[in-house]
Write a structure and sequence with these properties.
This protein is of the alpha+beta class and about 140 residues long. It contains 2 helices and 8 strands, in the order βββββαβαββ. The termini are close together.
Length: about 140
């Protein structure tokens, strides 16, 4: 899977969830619980980025990136000081970018949502999901 760099645009807000470990829980009638874990790596991390009041050219760059990633079934990676701009802890920044051995690669979870604010200015929200891809 080819990874495509997200445009160098700093988000105005972001949210991140590290995902979970794939497992199934079984509960007996007496309340006893059994857990079957299917791996030792996280799956389905979530990253949501909001870009408020950006030039339409930047909004267009995000849409072009979306087309590029999905047209070639690629993944997304983030350049330094973009998605993690303003994060003071390197470990937290690496979690957000899914760097450091997680094995997860970001894909778009849904198409970017573009809202026109006023002429020449838009706001864009992007949602990503981290997947394991054996490639």
């Amino acid at each position: 899977m080819t990874a495509y760099a997200f445009p160098s645009i700093k988000p105005t807000s972001r949210s991140y969830s590290p995902g979970s470990y794939p497992q199934t829980e079984f509960q007996a009638q007496n309340g006893a619980m059994t857990v079957v874990r299917f791996g030792n790596r996280r799956v389905e991390s979530k990253l949501s980025l909001t870009f408020s009041n950006i030039p339409d050219a930047d909004a267009s760059a995000i849409l072009q990136h979306y087309e590029q990633v999905n047209g070639n079934w690629g993944s997304v990676f983030f350049l330094p000081f973009t998605v993690d701009a303003g994060v003071s802890d390197t470990n937290l920044a690496n979690y957000m970018k899914e760097r450091g051995g997680s094995g997860l690669q970001y894909r778009y979870d849904s198409p970017p949502d573009v809202q026109s604010v006023y002429p020449g200015i838009s706001s864009v929200t992007c949602s990503f999901v981290g997947i394991l891809d054996g490639d």
